[in-house]
Amino acid sequence: MGSEGPSTVTIHVTGFKKFHGVSENPTEIIVRNLKGFMQKKGLPEGLVLGSCNVLETAGEGALPQLHKVFQSAVAGQNNETSNGGQIIWLHLGVNSGATRFAIENQAVNEATFRCPDEMGWKPQTVAIVPSDGSISQVRETSLPVNEIVKNLSKMGYDVMPSDDAGRFVCNFVYYHSLWFAERNRIKSLFVHVPLFSTIDEETQMEFAASLLKVLASLH
User: Fold this and answer.
1) Secondary structure of residue 44 in the 3-state scheme
2) Which of 38, 40, 48, 202 is the Cys-Cys partner for 10 at CB 3.0 to 4.6 Å?
3) Name one GO cellular component term (predicted).
4) What are phi and psi of 2, to 5 degrees?
C-alpha cells in the first residue's frame, strides 16, 4: 500500500478505576481527560482518537463490559475504515511500585490474583481463555515494542520494554484483548504507568499524547 493513501489509525483507549491499595487510579484520570487534552494539543495527522473507556478493575465480572467495548470498535471499523485504516487498542494500567513507564510486550494465559478484584474474584492459576491452551500460553503484541520505547525515550520519557504484565487484572485484560485483536485483524498494546506521586499528572498526560503520536507514526 502506498504511503500517499489516506490511511488512518484509530486508537481506542481504556484505563481502570480504583482497586485494592490504589484509591486513585491515574489511568482513570488520564483516560477521562484524554479527549479534551488532545483537542487542545491537536491530533497528529492520520490519527483518530476513538472511544475512551474506564473499566472496572475486575476479571471475569468485567468481561461483558470489555467485550461490548471490543465489539463496538470492530463495528466501527466496518463502517468507517473501508480505506484500510488500522485499529489499535491501547490499554493503560497502573503499577504502583513502578518509577517509569513500561510498554508491555506480552500477556500470559494465567490469572493468579494477589488480592480479590473489585468484584470479589480471586483466581489462582486459572487459564484466562481455557480454549487457548494452558496457563503457560503467551500472546505477544504485533506492535514493535522496542521501536515504540526508542521513540518515546528520544522524546525524554523514562520508559522501558517489559515482558511481564503481572498475573492480575492488567494481564487478564491484555490477554483477552490480544486474543480478540488477532481474530479481528486489529492491534493491541498495554502500557503500565506509575502513580501520580511518582510521575506527576501533567507529565503523564504529555506521555499519553506522545504515545498516541508514536503509534500513529508507525503506519
Assistant:
1) coil
2) 48
3) cytosol
4) -70, 145
> Cell numbers 504511503 label which residue?
3
State what percent of residues in the chain have pLDDT above 90.
83
Query: Can you tell me which residue has the cell 470498535?
Result: 73
Write the DSSP assignment of 157-189 as a string of letters.
--EEEES---SSHHHHHHHHHHHHHHHTT-EEE
CB atoms within 10 A of CB 54: 18
Which DSSP string corresponds to 103-137?
EE-EEESEE--SS--TTS---SSEESSGGG--TT-
pTM over 0.90: yes
pLDDT in tens, 133-188: 999 999 999 999 999 999 999 999 999 999 999 999 999 999 999 999 999 999 99
- Distance of alpha carbon 178 from alpha carbon 138, whole angstroms: 10
The Cα 107–Cα 217 span in angstroms is 24
Kindly provide the residue ranges of all beta strands, DSSP E only, lying in 17-162, ordered along the sequence. Answer: 47-55, 86-94, 101-104, 106-108, 110-111, 126-127, 138-140, 159-162
Pairing relation of β-strands 86-94 and 47-55? unpaired
Domains of the chain (ranges; CATH) run 16-77+85-217 (3.40.630.20)
